[in-house]
Amino acid sequence: MRRIFQSILTLAIAVNVAACVSPGPEAVVEGPVRLTASPIDAKFGDYWYQGLAEITSYDLEQSRYGAMHPGTAVNIFVTEDLSRSRQVKLDDQGNGDRDAVTVLKLNATRKFNTGIYPYSIMTSVFTPVNRDRDPHTLKLTASIQEWCGQTFAQLNRTADGYRARHYSYFEDEGDADEQIAETVLEDELWNIVRLNPTDLPTGAIRVMPAASYLRFSHSEWKPQSASASVGRVNGESDLMEFRLTYDGIPRELLIRYRAAFPFEIEYWEESGGRSAAGDELVTRATMKERILLDYWTRNRPGDNVLRDQLGL
Length: 312
Description:
By secondary structure, the protein is mainly β. It has helices spanning 42-48, 189-195, 211-217, 305-310, and strands at 2-7, 12-17, 53-64, 67-83, 100-114, 117-128, 139-146, 149-158, 161-168, 176-181, 184-185, 203-208, 224-232, 239-246, 252-258, 265-271, 283-293. The radius of gyration is 19 Å and the shape is globular. The two termini are 22 Å apart.
């Protein structure tokens, strides 16, 4: 995996990234281009541009089929340069300066078993670091795999909202390609916490529910009205919480994070809503271990000891 090592004080750029990506869509975003250097303070750069990813494992409790199932969640945060026009990771850095936008990428995974068969869920969110210039997440992908089949969804930022494509083995969902009006994405809230929690939306807002929720509940892909708030956790001087409550659907999200930079996420909980089978949808995740690591270079058999360090 190749990623960008930036020094904010000197605005010098050096390349240190390598990852597998596939070709993306044609140009779908309009607006000014910028170089990869971002006007972020040095503390931000020292943490996020040091050539490492932040990997955090969580003890997961996930409801499915009327029961709670134990599992593991892993959140991987890393910065990289994305092609603004194609919305894929840049492979040729030398030819991509004017098309590059530095993003904070979240790869969020959840794995749990339901009886004999396993579930694997992954959501990837690409949010520009410089949100003053690029306030909207550029891309979101989400997939669910289990023994009955798999589903996949992708949202790409366009000039007036998002192009949403989703594919499913369920007949009533089928395959769809539609345009969604500009809105906050629930799945991007995690990146906003990490970039600058003072940017979190509060009050009455419109939000696209999380992709995993939409798949489990077999719900329509459309923004919902909701209310959001930020406050300090009772009895915890250094812990904040973001709470999102939907008006039209029975769903609530709670994210607890450290009040000081780099605003690590310690716990989250999703509650309310029903699956197609009628069981309540509940997710709880409690932080287990956290490391900074260039994981893309740790691919030899002996490197599996790092999984022990993460409790995986």
